[in-house]
Specification:
Domain Ferrous iron transporter FeoA-like: 1-78
GO molecular function, one term: transition metal ion binding
CATH class: Mainly Beta
InterPro entries: Fe-transptr_FeoA-like (IPR007167), FeoA_core_dom (IPR038157), Transcriptional_repressor_C (IPR008988)
Helix content: 10-25%
Strand order of the largest sheet: 4-3-2-1-5
Organism: Sphingomonas changnyeongensis
Radius of gyration: 11 Å
Protein name: Ferrous iron transport protein A
Number of helices: 2
Length: 80
Amino acid sequence: MQLHQLPLRARARIRAIDWQALDPAEARRLRELGFDQGVEVEALHRAGWFGGDPIAFRVGRMTVAMRRALAGAVAVEIVE
């Protein structure tokens, strides 16, 4: 499942990030925000009525908003 498909309030663990699909600046930003394999994330909020872009995620104690296209490069698995 891709990060943008994660249901609201669901927690997941990052399985992989397709770094090659990202612009270098976006990849650097994700790394600086703590996105890496094994990190847990939670979907908090989707903005707007159509498309739900951007999406807010919790990573550790931070809330991070990102576009669906960027979240599509992050593969996750739901944590029970």
